[in-house]
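Blackboard transcription, Thursday session:
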Amino acid sequence: MSSIHSRATARLALSPAVILLLAWMAIPLAMTLWYSFHDYQLLIPRGNEFVGWENYAYFLTDPAFLHALVNTLALVGGVLLITVAAGIGLALLLDQPIYGRGIVRVLVVSPFFVMPTVSALVWKNMFMNPVNGLLAWLAQLLGMPAIDWLAQAPLLSLVIIVAWGWLPFATLILLTALQSLDAEQKEAAQMDGAGALARFRHITLPHLARPTAVVILIQTIFLLSIFAEILVTTNGGPGTQSTNLAFLVYSQALLRFDVGSASAGGAVAVVLANILALLLMRLVGRNLDA
Amino acid sequence: MAGIALRNVSKAFGMQHVIPCIDLDIGDGELVVFVGPSGCGKSTLLRLIAGLEDATSGQVLIDGRDVTQLAPAQRGLSMVFQSYALYPHMSVRDNIAFPLRMMGMERATVERKVADAARVLNLQDYLDRKPRELSGGQRQRVAIGRAIVREPVAFLFDEPLSNLDAALRVSMRMEIARLHQQFGTTMIYVTHDQTEAMTLADRIVVLNHGRVEQVGTPLQLYRHPASRFVAGFIGSPRMNLIEGPEAARHGAATVGIRPENLVLSDHSGRWQGRVSLAEHLGSDTYVHVDVEGVGALTARAAGDFDVRHGGRVWLTPDEASLHRFDGEGRCVTASEVDHVR
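(Written on the board underneath:)
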């Protein structure tokens, strides 16, 4: 099959896709790196001169950077924690034979199809608004003072909004995994004297290890670059309390019009994302081997 | 060790009456095989005994104690599943130890019992492996190991050998028979393979459409099938079942004759026919003959009986070994036939 000719033909046939991919990835990356070493401010056009590592120094020593880094990790970690834990719970419930299971499943999945800007606005205006929001009304009903979520706990609010959007994804993957669990295994455990809790701990949880790893890896990729939810709710504030790396880069580039240091921030974000990816592959990737 | 009894047990899934009503007694230390075609309710019956299914009505007694309402684990039974149902993320050691851990047994005792079970089943070298690193036969032995460590009052086997290749099936069959002799524990074994049933069983329960067709020792069933269904199911190759005028001549709706009770000859006999296939097994030759007015018959001849496809042969049934069945498929004896006449 793989004669020299067929391989050459294969390369030829593949090349448009590969070239397109390279152009889409490599050129922007190269341009980002190029700008990151040059002074390039949209408001002060003074000829983009080479400045070495100055942009990096400026970006990394910005007190907002460390804050954004912590916020990014907190956002990813918080959402992962909620979606995986609640996802397992929901998947277990949806796995039960209940009346109208099809409709319930569609309802559970639907948040995933709501675009981030829309869901964030709905949360901001209809749930978390301290005057008209549903949560404020509930608090009032219980005789508690209303919480101005986005001002008092901006990061937690964002975690809740984003987790709401990603919960269906985790639930769906974990549910399909649950359905592939061999019924005879559960019955064997039942015969072996394992109660419901022991069965969950010794049979179901280990079975879910692999899909959970998949959920964590995929979600992390997307959660590192959360932007829309922040833009339409808190705008990174108050101060930098809900600014993550993606939003910080955006604010450098399009709020302060400093393309140079935004590019440096972009390069830093790429490096950090890769470090995190490596760590994650070490931690949860083990489950994927087997 | 304990006897198991079923009293008027029935099972329905919605409107589907899988098991209409069954009464059955299984003696202490007996190896009983439930056999029947697929969908006959044999696995459901086993699961009723195990407690994995709830009986719609009736009682399950173990050692005279009503366990119908008890959870599976409280019945003191062990089960070996068709898919083995090993826990894939646990080592062989942990798989076998699992039921003991669930009982809350001491670590040292668990270790000792697992080691004992591993010795009995020749699994010592595999204790630290995961199930996926084992062959089919080894997985089967692990499943049996997990069943024996609990020291159950009875073992339940649900088609345990159906995923193994033919050679392994024979050796595992012998191993199960050996275990039964060694432990002397009651065993219930479900299979659709009548050879397994014949070779293993103290007694066979033949099931059809959720009803017990016949209960008896393998030879009883072979020699005196109570119904046409049992006659056709037990024995390999199958009993020849003849209908029509030839059966009417014997005063029955169907007559059955086993291949070894047909005498083959190359010059004379009752029926004349053409050989459609001759299977030379060495020790025996099974000759498939098309007989006009009677149908296709299988006869056993000596290994050196020389026939070929298309050859002409004569067949003579041994009248004393004829089985007669009435219109409903029930067995009638020759004297009953005379009586009717």
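Lecturer's comment: Chain A is about 75% helix and 0% strand.
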